[in-house]
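Protein in question kept in full:
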Amino acid sequence: MLTEVNEVKFINPKPPPVYYKGIVGWMRSNLFANVSSVLLTLLIGFLSVVVLVNFIDWGVVSAQFIPDLAKCDALRGVGACWGVIAQKGRQIVMGRYPLDEQWRPVLATLIMLVAVIVSCKPNYWNKKLPMVWLAMYVTYFILMLGGVFGLPKVDTDLWGGFPLTVLLTVMALTLAFPIAILVALGRRSSSMPAISTMCTIYVEIIRGVPLVTLLFMASFMLPLFMPEGVKIDVVLRVIVAITLFSAAYMAEVVRGGIQSIPKGQIEAAQSLGLSYWQTQKLIVLPQALAIVIPSLMNTAIGLFKDTSLVTIVSLYELTGALSLALNSDADWRPFKIEAYLFITLIYFVFCFLMSRYSLWVENRLNVSKAR
């Protein structure tokens, strides 16, 4: 009998991977690792340099920084006219709020942003924090509305610009977050099918329509169903619409985090005699929310930008205030690009800060999982 012996072929060992340190090492690993990577890096670098050189020539070298309309018209198509920011910047940022009272939205927005920044630090996560937020909201609306302490009253129809953008974002997130948690828990409830069905219907309906539709219904349709003589402020109606819209999306994010928690932990909690709410508060939600922080922050960033849609209901936030400021003045209207770049920078700075904060919290919570 002949036995067939297969010849074993040995593969030559590969050299160990080279570990590079510093910026040079990072460039070798990520930008110049192989021939295709080098070619792609050089191509992108060349295009970036061309765009950057042209932008510097248009936006810096040939630009006009003084609000001189004659010089800006002479530079049209050649250089940027940043003088439009100096001329219309105050109206863009503050909207139609009375000029002599614009210190009030500046102070109110500063107080709100300080409260948000303080709340972002874990050292201040205690029982006093809700009282800080309550005091902040009371102070905010006193300053914005007036009518007390000798402050002239300013109707919400005149609110606009960056203060309105911040108000809609912060209030909607503040109200939507607890609603989202309750809806997520309700949708996963197996012992209460009626609650689960209601939460499911709410999420599917809200996610099935665009935000513009909700804003339109809240502004124009809702007053038709109210009793005669009852009027709800347009800002309040918009906040409710944005809150319900954001809560539906956040609820699905939170539900995904809850589902990622191993069932064994819940069973262990039940074996220790913990109630349903104790289990959710002490075991499930802390882990679930830590997991979905990037998705929650993504929702917050999207909401911050989606506030520009309130222009459809005649509320002129940052983007709407820009259109209002330039469309009402034909002389400065040709320089919309410069104005849009200005508010683009504002949006980018705040979105970038939110994303970096999300990364910081994520790294802080993942310290125990690091190896």
Notes: The mean pLDDT is 86. Residues 174 and 285 are 17 Å apart (CA to CA).
